[in-house]
């Protein structure tokens, strides 16, 4: 579940970047895997979602949001949930050092 306490307030400027997302023209199912999806189908869907993200003008902002809100599911900013968890773990390890 997304950590709601980490979400910015209801100020339009905090959210309006989403209107420029390349994903708005895509089927949202591309970015969120169905239950039980494994193997090649999972990899192909992730690859297709990342291709949309690669041409997105707000990719960096999207990734910052996903990391700050701890989005648990889907491809955000060109990264899967596993890749984002790995980023957060590296950040925590680097802070401890």
From TrEMBL:
Its main location: cytoplasm. This is Transcriptional regulator WhiB. Keywords: 4Fe-4S, Cytoplasm, Disulfide bond, DNA-binding, Iron, Iron-sulfur, Metal-binding, Transcription, Transcription regulation. One of its GO terms (cellular component) is cytoplasm. One of its GO terms (molecular function) is metal ion binding. HAMAP family: WhiB (MF_01479). Its cofactor is [4Fe-4S] cluster. Acts as a transcriptional regulator. Probably redox-responsive. The apo- but not holo-form probably binds DNA. It holds the Pfam family Whib. It is found in: Cytoplasm. It comes from Kitasatospora cineracea. One of its GO terms (biological process) is cell redox homeostasis. Residues 22-86 form the 4Fe-4S Wbl-type domain. InterPro entries: 4FE4S_WBL, Whib.
């Amino acid at each position: 579940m997304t950590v709601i306490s980490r979400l910015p307030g209801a100020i339009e400027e905090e959210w309006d970047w989403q209107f420029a997302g390349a994903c708005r023209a895509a089927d949202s199912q591309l970015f969120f895997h169905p239950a039980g999806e494994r193997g090649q189908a999972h990899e192909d869907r992730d690859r297709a979602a990342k291709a949309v993200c690669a041409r997105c003008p707000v990719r960096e902002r999207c990734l910052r949001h996903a990391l700050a809100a701890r989005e648990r599911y889907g491809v955000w900013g060109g990264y899967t949930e596993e890749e984002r968890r790995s980023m957060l773990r590296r950040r925590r390890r680097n802070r401890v050092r």
